[in-house]
Write a structure and sequence with these properties.
The chain is mainly β. The protein folds into four domains: 75 residues, no CATH class; 80 residues, no CATH class; 83 residues, no CATH class; 65 residues. The chain is built from one helix and 29 strands. The strands form eight sheets. Strands 11-10-9-8-7-6-12 form a seven-stranded antiparallel sheet, with no helix packed on it. A five-stranded antiparallel sheet has the order 2-1-3-4-5, with no helix packed on it.
Length: 430
């Protein structure tokens, strides 16, 4: 465990109210500011007297609470919502808003309170990293050789400010519409002739408008003459549809799968490289399961990948074929998958025949070994852990009580005290 200077903090043993606004005066040390880590008042971080008193601490940015005896951080909250700096998206287990916590290697350090993960600048790789802990392998990263003073991830991974949620989503495959128009237009001409003019004489006797009354009215008879207008010739164009269909009409239904404009993401177990494809990817006739490990052939090469899910804002072009389902990632299936990769053999024939056999590369994973034995100065309570290097060398390392260490191994580590040992497989390779 590293013993880093975590800066100045204000302290109150019982009341956190207003602590964010007090002047920090106490120097604290430790590995990093995460729930489950311990805080120390001494810069050696290895004696009982170095533990801080239980209570509340604030550096003006975050407020933390530690418990009795081991000074373990049990709660973290932000002093102000204005300290939210970055939003991470499209990365299960890491999504959410990240707060500025302090500095690491001279660069700002950001952390998610909800996910207990962080964004830090890796001075070894010269790039910004999204990871589970400071100095742990990158889950996502910015460009190599970055000199940016703030994280410079692609906007599809993280962006500055509050996370923006979308209330409505339109599936592009909900509507599929097409129409066909058949027009058979044959113009014809029809001539209509009106009959010859006639003269009609009509005699009209107006009715008595005052019937049933006692008024006497005189009525006069008169004659009217009506003349019909001269004959006219009208030409009318009528559209006739001589499309008389007979026989049998056959309509063929779709027999193909309609593919939507989204991508499936697969993450390489050993290199951390992401692959995207818009093609239909099935295993034994079924769609793959998220966070499951698969033996796959990607762009002509066999490798082990984890299915991360669907992403609508990325157009995938990789050629992905799933060969076998290995199991859940959290069960360490990446190591099991590696044993299934077959070596490739290339035969070149000319005047002589040369056979070249390429074996699979050695893969070494990172493991966090935690010794949960209680700290005792009468009994050291150390545990011994055995690991194996790529050269086949077996190494035994010691982890002291109450501490944890990270080791690289090609096999699953073995502890001489399993009941007091927690072994965690970390993402990525050594």
């Amino acid at each position: 465990m590293a013993c880093l200077d975590l800066g100045l903090w204000a302290y109150n043993s019982t009341d956190p109210n207003g602590l964010c606004n007090e002047t920090p005066t106490i120097n604290l040390y430790g590995d990093s500011i995460f729930i489950g880590n311990s805080m120390f008042s001494g810069n050696t971080c290895d004696t009982l007297s170095d533990y801080t008193s239980p209570g509340f601490f604030s550096n003006g940015i975050v407020l933390i609470e530690t418990q009795l005896d081991t000074s373990t951080i049990v709660n973290i909250s932000a002093c102000s919502s204005s300290e939210i700096i970055y939003c991470v998206q499209n990365e299960p287990g890491f999504n959410g808003e990240y707060y500025l916590f302090g500095a690491e290697n001279g660069y700002p350090l950001y952390s998610s309170i909800t996910n207990n993960t962080c964004i830090y600048y890796s001075t070894v790789e010269s790039r910004w990293c999204l990871s589970t802990d400071v100095s742990s392998p990158c889950i996502q990263f910015g460009p190599f050789g970055s000199t940016s003073p703030i994280p410079d991830f692609d906007n599809t991974v993280a962006y500055e400010g509050l996370c923006v949620t979308t209330t409505t989503t339109t599936d592009p495959c909900l509507t599929f519409d097409f129409s066909a128009v058949f027009d058979c237009l044959v113009p014809t001409t029809t001539t209509t002739t009106t009959a010859a003019p006639t003269t009609t004489t009509t005699t009209t006797i107006p009715p008595n408008p005052c019937s049933a009354t006692s008024i006497t009215v005189s009525a006069f008879t008169y004659t009217t003459t009506t003349t019909t207008a001269a004959p006219t010739t009208t030409t009318t164009t009528t559209i006739v549809y001589p499309c008389n269909f007979s026989g049998e009409a056959i309509f063929n239904s779709f027999t193909e799968v309609i593919q939507c404009a989204n991508s499936k993401r697969f993450s390489d177990c050993f290199t951390g490289i992401d692959y995207y494809t818009s093609d239909l990817v099935l295993i034994s006739g079924n769609t793959p399961l998220e966070n499951y490990v698969y033996l796959a052939e990607i762009n002509g090469q066999q490798t082990c990948v984890t299915f991360e899910g669907l992403f609508e804002n990325i157009s995938g072009v990789d050629d992905v074929t799933l060969l076998n389902e290995i199991g859940s990632r959290i069960d360490g299936s990446c190591l099991t998958c590696f044993s299934n990769i077959q070596p490739t053999t290339t035969t070149t024939t000319s005047t002589s025949t040369t056979t070249t056999t390429t074996t699979s590369p050695c893969i070494s994973l990172s493991y966090r070994i935690s010794n949960i034995n209680p700290v005792s100065y009468m009994h050291p309570n150390d545990i011994n852990v055995t690991t194996t290097s790529c050269e086949g060398v077996v190494v035994t390392n010691s982890v002291s009580a109450g501490n944890n260490s990270i080791f690289c191994s090609t096999t699953y580590p073995v502890s001489d005290n399993p009941q007091n040992t927690i072994i965690t497989v970390l993402p990525g390779t050594c």
